[in-house]
Design goal:
about 210 residues, mainly alpha, Tetracycline Repressor, domain 2, 10 helices, about 0% strand
């Protein structure tokens, strides 16, 4: 009975911690690090102010944990996508990955807002853990495109080009459209089909 109660308490703490991370992600993404307070995170999570410091000693520690959570979420989302989807060629795998990247950016806008925040990169310059999380995210995205391009070259659907450099160019194109969309400067959603067509034309084996 005692072990059951301890397990239930541990589960409750994990749920509370997850709620804090979810709330903090939205606040950091939309308001930035400076304009987000631990008190506000606690209030919106529905916990006593001091309780948040049981899980996270400082706001910087909370921010790094949020970034780690985003990293894990992105990596797991793509991993699950490739487990469930099957592609007739490397070219189709690439286009599928681009489309799925855009899809995630729509349903998890706060993730991509957080990744582009100035403070994220400012902290990464002095905090090795933050830098590592950021590197994992972008390395993952580049390698997804690079792998599809390499498979495409092997099966003949993709032309002979530098897979690494082309993957970086494609990531820059995708990230640029996501930024246009999130900044509400342009209805970038109307460009998705053109982006896919451009990427196909750029890499397809003629």
């Amino acid at each position: 009975m005692k072990n059951f109660l301890l397990q239930g308490s541990a589960n409750a703490e994990e749920i509370k911690k997850a709620d804090i991370l979810d709330t903090a992600t939205i606040l950091f993404a939309n308001k930035g690090f400076t304009n987000t307070s631990m008190t506000e995170v606690a209030s919106l999570t529905g916990i006593v102010g001091a309780t948040i410091f049981y899980h996270f000693k400082t706001k910087e520690e909370l921010f790094v944990s949020v970034l780690e959570n985003v990293k894990t979420g992105l990596v797991e989302a793509f991993s699950l996508y490739f487990q469930e989807e099957h592609f007739p060629s490397g070219l189709e795998r690439l286009l599928g990955a681009i489309a799925y990247h855009l899809h995630i950016a729509e349903i998890k806008k706060e993730w991509f807002l957080l990744l582009r925040r100035h403070y994220t990169h400012e902290l990464a310059a002095v905090n090795p853990t933050c830098r590592q999380h950021l590197e994992v995210v972008y390395t993952c995205l580049v390698e997804i495109f690079e792998k599809a391009l390499t498979i495409g070259q092997e099966d003949g659907s993709v032309g002979q080009l530098s897979a690494k450099k082309t993957a970086l160019i494609i990531l820059a194109m995708v990230d640029g459209i996501i930024q246009l969309e999130s900044n509400n400067l342009y209805n970038a959603g109307t460009l998705y089909s053109e982006l896919l067509a451009s990427c196909r034309k750029m890499v397809e084996n003629k």
